[in-house]
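User: Fold this; tokens only.

Assistant: Input:
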Amino acid sequence: MSDKVDAGNYVWVIVERTRNDENFLGLADEDGERFIPVTAEKDKALMLLGRLPEAEGVFSRSVEAIHRAQLLGQAQDEGFSVYLVDEKGRIIEHLTGQTH
């Protein structure tokens, strides 16, 4: 996918691949709330990707664009919130919206 996407409808998410699975990167805040960090721009997602420590069992990570509504629906189904973050992982906004 192109580096340029419709920022109103798409966000950039980090995808982790293990031997048997592929998942969005999920984190937990200090209160234990599970969330998926996303960025508005690919470059910021790549910078965030470079800041992540290695994870056991994860053999690759990549950055992909995904439609906001699709991600929000999948995240909600799995018990995750979705946060728009900057390139350092600081939360900018809690994303909400129509999911299904």
